[in-house]
Amino acid sequence: DKGAYPFYMLKEIDEQPAVMRKLVQEYFGDHDDPQIDENLIKAMADADHIYIVGAGTSYHAALVGARIFERLCGIPTTVHISSEFAYEQPLLSKKPFFIFLSQSGETADSRQVLVNVNAHKWPSLTITNVDKSTLSREATFTELLYAGPEIAVASTKAYTAQIAVEAILAKALGEYLGKDAAKKFDVKHQLGLVANGMQSITDSKKEIEEVAARYLSKPRNAFYIGRGLDWSVSLEAALKLKEISYVQAEGFASGELKHGTIALIEKGTPVLGIITQDRTAGLTRSNLDETRARGANTITIVSRHLSQEDDTIILPDVDECLTPLLSVVPAQLLAYYTSLGKGLDVDKPRNLAKSVTVQ
Ligand code: M6R
Predict the structure, then answer these.
(1) Which of 205, 259, 293, 327 has the highest CB neighbour count under 10 A?
(2) Which residues are catalytic (predicted)?
(3) What is the reported pTM?
(4) Of 294 and 357, which is predicted with more confidence?
(5) What pLDDT score does 1 carry?
(6) Residue 355: pLDDT above 90?
(7) What is residue 75's predicted lDDT score, i.e. its pLDDT?
(8) What are the φ/ψ torsions at residue 141 (nearest 5 degrees)?
């Protein structure tokens, strides 16, 4: 039931702080460290490479998770689009471990990969929102997202829950492997900060609605740009805008823009820069300047400690690994208000189904 909300998507965006708190409760209880099945951690620790597989938004959450696993656990981690991996499997390492990300647990493309993985008896984990779903039943291990039912076709709270669960798992695995980076990463405390941060962003809907009306309501195309984790979020941010507001949007590695795609920038093209990573903040700002010099309207989504006076949307500070949990929220809201402003059916965009059960 969407209660007083006009669309499920807005309700689900607003539920994200509560989902973060629920995850802390489910995975930590009264403990300081995550309580995860020891057999799962041992199976992952035994692997020489982690492969994360997903489609759409789940693929985007995998891109963020891979960076967190590498930073905290020191295990090479690569990400694959399930529909590609199923039929064009790359050469694999000797001891692979597979993680399947799927909100529904029913995506046919991802299931096909799991069928191949099981045929080789490789160990796997499904992280899903739906208990006893196909992918959850057929994998070796399963963990839940605890996000509650996600009704809107555009995935929001499942994306942030997926990243949070990946971070919790990476913390547990990294600690088990004795990695300093994992020991220092207080994920329980950080997820509390994330929940509060999400709340403060969803409390400033008015400002975000104005940004959408001013910059995104008319143009037919737009760019989200960023580097590293900010690039990964750019892909998800662009998908949200495409999917529900039909703006042709592209998520782009900001440094790559000048190698060709900058030719598409013209007067009034919206270019949204996501800036949350210390090492690359200045570089992305320069790339934004390059687009502005060619007529773009630049909009910035920036972590507070990196912010400057004329930035558009400021995000509360959290650990650098977890900034995607905050930077995606204004992007979800921008897509929502752009769609709403155009009078579209936000929850049921054309040509799309919530769960894609064909290959
Ligand atoms: O249920 P899944 O997470 O496996 O679904 C994967 C994609 O179909 C899904 O994320 C899709 O991209 C969403 N509509 C994006 O908002």
Answers:
(1) 327
(2) 354 (for fru-6p isomerization activity)
(3) 0.98
(4) 294
(5) 87
(6) no
(7) 98
(8) -125, 160
| Å from CA of 158 to ligand 1 middle | 9
- The model's confidence at residue 318, banded by pLDDT at 50, 70 and 90, is very high
At a CB cut-off of 8 Å and minimum separation 6, what does 358 contact? 108
Q: What ligand 1 atom has the least distance to the C-alpha of 56?
A: 12
Q: Which of left, alpha, beta for 98 (phi over 0: left; psi -120 to 50: alpha)? A: beta
Q: Are 114 and 124 in contact (CB under 8 A)?
A: yes
**Contact predicate 247/221, CB 8 Å:** yes
**In this structure, which residue's CA is closest to atom 10 in ligand 1?**
57
Structure tokens that stand for 121 in this block: 């008896």
> Residue 26 and residue 28: Cα distance in Å, rounded?
6
Residue with CA nearest ligand 1 atom 12: 56
Place of tokens 């894609």: 356
Q: How far is CA 51 from CA 231, 255, 300, 346, 356, in A?
A: 20, 26, 32, 33, 22
Any alpha helices (H) in the chain, and if so which ranges? Answer: 8-14, 16-28, 38-45, 56-73, 82-85, 108-119, 134-138, 157-176, 180-184, 187-202, 205-211, 229-245, 281-292, 324-341
28-75 per-position pLDDT tens digit: 999 999 999 999 999 999 999 999 999 999 999 999 999 999 999 999
What dihedral do alpha carbons 154, 155, 160, 166 form, nearest 10°? -140
Compute the distance between CA of residue 239 and CA of residue 234 in angstroms, rounded to an integer.
8
Residue 184: count of CB within 10 angstroms of its CB: 10
Q: Report the residue among 356, 357, 358, 359 best suited for mutation to probe ligand 1: largest number of ligand atoms under 8 A from its CB.
A: 356
Consecutive H or E run containing 253: strand 248-253
Catalytic residues: 354
Q: Give 341 or 1, the one with higher predicted confidence.
A: 341
Q: In this structure, what token pair is assigned to residue 230?
A: 């900010």
Measured in Å, residue 103 CA sits from the centre of ligand 1 at 7
**Which residue's structure tokens are 């650098």?**
320
Residue nearest to atom 14 of ligand 1 (CA): 154
Question: Which atom of ligand 1 lies closest to the CA of 128?
Answer: 3
ipTM of the prediction: 0.98
Does the C-beta of 58 come closer than 6 Å to ligand 1? yes
